[in-house]
Every structure is written in C-alpha cells, then in structure tokens.
Specification:
Blueprint (H helix, E strand, L loop, with lengths): L3 H11 L3 H13 L3 H13 L7 H13 L3 H13 L7 H11 L4 H10 L9 E5 L2 E5 L5 H11 L4 E2 L2 E3 L4 E3 L7 E5 L6 H14 L9 E6 L5 E4 L10 E8 L5 E2 L2 E3 L4 E3 L6 E5 L13 E3 L2 E3 L2 E9 L20
Antiparallel strand pairs: 1-2, 2-13, 3-6, 4-5, 6-7, 7-16, 8-14, 9-13, 9-16, 10-15, 11-12, 11-14
Helix pairs in contact: 1-2, 2-3, 3-4, 4-5, 5-6, 6-7
Length: 325
C-alpha cells in the first residue's frame, strides 16, 4: 500500500500543485520507496510535474521493480519491448516475465500466449479504392479473451476531436467507452498484437498509436466521421479494427458512400486506408459505427501514422484520440 505521504502527494498532483507533490515524492523515491519511484517514473514518462525524460523514467521503473513492485515489473516489461528509455530488448522482456511468472499470473499467461506459433495472415479485398481489407481470424480467441479481460477494468468515456477547441472532448457524437493501452500498459502480449498489426499493415510498429478497446452498449454509436485529421502533420494513414465479441445486434462498421456495412466474428480484423495518393483525407472513407440494438459490442482499434514520432517524443494528446468504426 502507498504511504500516507505518497497518497497526499498524488492528491496534490491531481490538484496541479506540482512543487508540493514533488517535495513529498522525491525524498521517498531517493529512499527507495517503490511506490514513490513508480509515481515519479510515470511523471517523467508523461512530462507531468517534471520534465519529460524517458531515460530517467526507465531508471526509476527498474529501481521500483528491483524493490518488488508488481506494477513496475509489468511496466518495465512494456518499456523493454517498446524501447522506452533504452534500446528495445524483446528477449529481456520475456526473461523479465519469466522471473515474475511465479508471482504474477498475468506474466505467466503472457508467456503462454507468446509461445504459440503465429498463424498466417489472410486478407480479403473488400474495396481497392479506397483500400479496405478484411483479415479473417487475425487473432485467435485466446488473444481476444486476454484483451477483453485487460480492458474490463479500464473503460472510461470515449472522446472525439473538437476542431474548434483543437482538443479531444466527450461528446454525444461518440458515446462509447474506451480502454487504452499506452506505454506503461503495452505489456509484451499486447506489444505482440501490435507487432502483428504492423506486419499486416506493412508498417513499423512505432507508427501505431496506443491500442484501444471500445465498448458500445444498446443505443450507443459513433456517427459518420473520418479518422484522418485535416492538416495533421503526421497523418493517420490507416485504421485497423479487430472484432472482439459477438452476441449483439446492430453495430456494423458502415461506409455510407461505398454502400458497405461490415461485421466480423471475434478475432476478425478490418484494415482501411484513410488518405488518398496525395496524403490528404479521403472523403470516401467516411464511416460510422452503427447503433447497437441489443447486447454489447467490443472492438479493438489502432490508428497508424505516416511515420513514427521523433526520437524521445510521443504522439501528442492533441493528436491522439479514441477511434473505432
């Protein structure tokens, strides 16, 4: 359990009282308190309350893991396979999971998932211009179940990009819930899914924004929209969607200008290109998540950019949103 002082520090940080929060956290981190080390690491990762410093974030997470903090071990495994704060080390990430497998059932489960031989990627062309492809059985049901379970405790209201405010806001235009997997949560089994998405889309894994799981209940939808953002310097060129469940009515991914309404079985994926040959948003890719009539729809989503962020940087919050279709 975090100390009372750390709880107070986190409360101060939430109020925007950065100097006071750091005054409480820093000496405890220096004394080796694992929760303080971990909190300070996340602040360095995100550039909140302190300057963004990925190398320092990595060092602090390593120190917290050495002190036996479970969440730090999980985050360190993500950092290792992604290359946050140091060179990417996939084998090292798996070795870390192996060290924790007796203490962390999620580590053990990830090792079992990763150990399976990858299945070939199949694709069916739905549209050549704009490019839309179906990828049947892209994930097997074990991967699907793992993602759904990880997402189940992380859902929050989804947001949309407001052009006037130039930021993401909650809006009835999109009334789903989202569970995101940013760097601290891109554990090796999640990273392996992102690697598979990169192979299927013929892109580098670093071009993808954080993987997300979307949940739509009865009556919820995402109205017609484009995933590409006009004027975005590092454009979202591709969208990748993975169906995670069945047992619901409605909820198809619709492309009204193309006369398409697509639904997949659990594990099936959909890939479509958001931009034309000139790199500008392709209006033909206007799409919507049709209202769910009954049941609950779960879908994973990953936006893929034109190129990875600059070294040491990340896709900014003003450019990162929760998307599905």
């Amino acid at each position: 359990m975090p100390s009372a002082a750390l709880v107070q520090a986190l409360d101060l940080a939430a109020q925007g009282r950065s100097a006071e929060a750091l005054h409480l956290v820093t000496p405890r981190a220096q004394a080796g308190e694992p929760d303080a080390l971990y909190a300070l690491a996340l602040w360095h990762l995100e550039g909140r309350h302190v300057a963004r410093d990925l190398t320092e974030a990595r060092r602090l997470v390593e120190a917290a893991e050495a002190e036996g903090l479970l969440q730090a071990a999980r985050t360190l495994s993500a950092f290792m396979c992604m290359g946050v704060g140091a060179t990417a080390d996939w084998d090292g990430a798996l070795a870390l999971l192996d060290r924790w497998r007796s203490r962390d059932p999620i580590a053990r489960r990830q090792l079992d998932l990763i150990a399976r031989a990858p299945q070939p990627i199949e694709r069916v062309t739905v549209s050549e211009a704009p490019l839309i492809e179906r990828l049947p059985n892209f994930l097997d049901l074990q991967d699907v179940s793992f993602l759904v379970e990880l997402a189940s405790t992380r859902f929050r209201p989804a947001r949309v990009f407001d052009q006037r405010q130039q930021r993401f806001v909650t809006h009835p235009y999109r009334d789903a819930e989202v569970a995101s997997f940013p760097a601290p949560l891109e554990w090796p089994a999640v990273h392996a899914i992102n690697q598979r998405i990169a192979r299927a889309s013929e892109t580098a894994v670093a071009q993808g924004e954080s993987l997300q799981v979307l949940r739509y209940g009865p009556g919820q939808s995402y109205r017609p929209h484009l995933d590409a953002v006009p004027g975005l310097a590092n454009q979202r060129i591709l969208t990748f969607l993975i169906a995670l469940n069945g047992g619901f009515e409605g909820g198809a991914t619709e492309f009204p200008d193309l006369g398409l309404a697509l639904r997949g079985r659990p594990g099936d994926a959909l890939l479509f290109r958001n931009v034309g040959e000139d790199g500008r948003p392709d209006r033909r890719t206007l799409h919507a998540g049709a209202p769910v009539i009954s049941g609950v729809k779960l879908i994973a989503s990953r936006w893929i950019r034109e190129h990875p962020p600059a070294p040491g940087e990340a896709f900014g919050e003003h450019e990162v949103g929760e998307s599905d279709g």
